[in-house]
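Kindly draft a sequence, keeping tokens residue-aligned:
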Amino acid sequence: MTGLAALVTGGTGRVGGAIARRLETEGYRVMAAGRGDGDLTRADGARALVGLAVEELGGLDLLVNAAADGFWPRSVGEVTEADWDAALGAAAKGSFFVTQAAAPHLRRSELGLVVMIEDVASFQPWPSFAPHCAAKAAQAMLTRVLARALGPEVRVCGIAPGSVAVAPEEEDRRAAETLLARIGTPDDVADAVLYLAGARFVTGSTILVDGGRLIAPPPR
């Protein structure tokens, strides 16, 4: 895989940053894009970011859609239109238009892979995070839609992390929600990205990196 080019949106965040660093360690040329590199809530901003990445990296082999916004607790009665725009703008709309712009370049690559960083929230109803759950569910569906649309040249896969980037005071409570009785780390998500890069017969599916949280019984 040495010498391949990767664009990581949300690449300055905790999870996206860990992915970008791991890819660099593995020999990828990486653009770790943050908020200052483009407005992914706009189609023209997404296209401009891909153009910049292709120019800087000399091509594109791997796209990781890790950008997200709007993850803050709100009761259903408190949710605003701005909350919806923030959550859907980066995770759903942004992932779609960045992938759309990247597709012609990925089709010319031997690797040709898109990885959506989803969330277990796309499978679980969290009443205090309604826009986030809906945005991540939309992104998870895009994984499947785009896998059908872009195959066979481009594979599209998802990774749904559980508790991998939590505040220290939350660690014990989140650990109790998993079958492994511990939290994960952003590096666990990076491991899954590398697995998918080498798993040439995997597309249209999502890997859960959640320590068994999704199937764990509620804490007593």
